[in-house]
Amino acid sequence: xxxxxxxxxxxxxxxxxxxxxxxxxxxxxxxxxxxxxxxxxxxxxxxxxxxxxxxxxxxxxxxxxxxxxxxxxxxxxxxxxxxxxxxxxxxxxxxxxxxxxxxxxxxxxxxxxxxxxxxxxxxxxxxxxxxxxxxxxxxxxxxxxxxxxxxxxxxxxxxxxxxxxxxxxxxxxxxxxxxxxxxxxxxxxxxxxxxxxxxxxxxxxxxxxxxxxxxxxxxxxxxxxxxxxxxxx
Length: 233
Fold this sequence. Notes:
- The chain is built from eight helices and five strands, in the order ααααβαββββααα.
- It is an alpha+beta fold.
- It has a five-stranded mixed sheet.
- α2 (37-48) runs antiparallel to α3, α3 crosses α4 (67-74) and α5 (96-114) packs across α6.
- It is globular, with a radius of gyration of 21 Å.
């Protein structure tokens, strides 16, 4: 790491002291320091609200790599934002199942209601809207996510109500997961590997997700065993 107190393109001494201490905890999890780049990117997002030029410089300094190498990773994954993100990322799934179940209607309704398109942020800085290929919750289609918390079985009306509450600063409760939605910066810190103590809140796997397992147990179903390969003598 660089010398304590060095200006990294925008962070002051207090920020650098804190961030370097947290970065040390991240790097210590891995046998090779550069393996900590992904959580480090989430850490600087938690600080800046996006992967800023300052954050890229910081990650490069911590890991002893070039800023070009850090940027190459940051531009590959869509969870890393390269311009200021809103307090809440609202992702609308429009992949096949969600689309036919109403995801396209939800998307059209929100773009009109908020006046923004994909990866654009409302003027008040509250909501960044994203068109998502899959939220990995097809059993609850159509699904919307807010900072990666699930809102299942949505309608255009329920989605509009959710974003209105977010913009008004009201508490919003996801269908599953934590008891309330946190901000983008707070969630980025969790994704960096720093617990917020909320892992056991709320509902985990819902009824629809567990339905196949329940039916299998009730009916005594099991996956067929693989045949044992005989060895040639």
